[in-house]
Each structure stands twice: as C-alpha cells, then as structure tokens.
Give the backbone structure.
Amino acid sequence: MEHVVALRDGLRELMKVVRCVKQQHQAGPGMVAPGVAGMLAVIERHPRLHLKDLAAACALDQSTTSRAVSAFVQDGLVRRVADPHDGRASFLELTDEGRDALAKAEERYTTLLAGALRDWTPAEAEHFAGLLHRFAQSLRENQTMEATR
C-alpha cells in the first residue's frame, strides 16, 4: 500500500506544478491557454468532428464544450462547417489562426517539457511516457468499473 500512497503524493505534486504552469501562462497575441490548446489539438486530429464528439474526447459536458467552442469561433480559432448529412449539425474545423495558435502552444509546452527532461536520458523519458500512458489507461478502466458498480 505504501507504493499507492507514494503515487498519490506524487500525483498531488504533479497537479500542483500543472496548476502553477497554467497560472503563469501569459496570453499574448496568438497564444492560447493550456486547456484551449488541448481542445484545439483534438479538433485538429479528428477531421469532421461534431461538438458532442469533442466533449466526449475531452471528458467535458456538452454545455461546457459548447461555450468553449462558441468562444473559439468568436476568437477566429475554429469555424463551424455544415454537415451535409444532417442540416442541424456542424463539424468543427481549425482556422489558419487556430492552427497557428495551436502550433505556438505546442512549441511552448514541448520546450517546457524538454527543459524538465534535460537531465534524463531518452530511454528514461520514453520509459516514463510509456508508464504514464499505461497508468492513465488503467485509471480510466478502473474509473469505468467503479461507475458501473
């Protein structure tokens, strides 16, 4: 059980650092907040994405996602494209400005991570990434099992 407590404490520390990174984020011209970058990345990776699919992919409720997308559209980062198969629905698509903002955000976070990993070997970083993905999947599966009980 000690290993679980150590992991819990490590996750708390990680979440604190992530909050600090978010708080220190300086939104300048063409820069987007970390949460926005994550949503834009999902839209970029999944062409012809509907709002409900974005909400599911980001684990957000549809009303929160709808408000965010409305802001993205207003800011010129995303456009809605009519779904030819369903006149009531639309797909989400990044604009050129949205792609540029995402590229800047991803460059910023890649630089931040590279700095944090500067004393790590590539093998250590790859091993950690693999374990992190495995842990996230295990946590997701456990959460799903807990929800069905």
